[in-house]
Specification:
about 110 residues; mainly alpha; two-stranded antiparallel ribbon; about 65% helix; globular; GPAT/DHAPAT_C; GPAT/DHAPAT C-terminal domain-containing protein
């Protein structure tokens, strides 16, 4: 999923890494979060967030806040396109519906 969203996040958040560098960067950040006890890694290599209502979870939420709105917007846009069907909705309609959804969420 990150490889699909990264070009959009890169443009919006002025990120510097090339797509070919993503895997290494993600691994470095994940390792740092594990070492800081903000996330855990199970025996299968899955990353698990800290339990809710813990200091570690609160710190993780603070770290996630800057990108949360962007991810929500991308999700809403993709959900609209999926719901209406590819090719059945114009770019202008997607823009208008996304704007309306954004207003409702606010």
């Amino acid at each position: 999923v990150i490889y699909t969203l990264y070009p959009f996040l890169k443009a919006e958040l002025f990120l510097k890494w090339k797509s070919s560098e993503l895997k290494e960067q993600i691994e470095q950040y994940a390792d740092a979060l594990v070492q800081s006890n903000l996330i855990q890694q199970d025996d299968e290599g899955n990353l698990i967030s800290s339990a809710p209502n813990t200091e570690e979870h609160n710190q993780l939420v603070v770290l996630a806040t800057p990108v949360k709105q962007s991810l929500e917007r991308y999700y809403m846009t993709l959900a609209l396109i999926t719901q209406r069907g590819s090719g059945n909705i114009s770019a202008k309609q997607v823009e208008e519906l996304s704007h309306l959804l954004g207003q409702r969420l606010s």
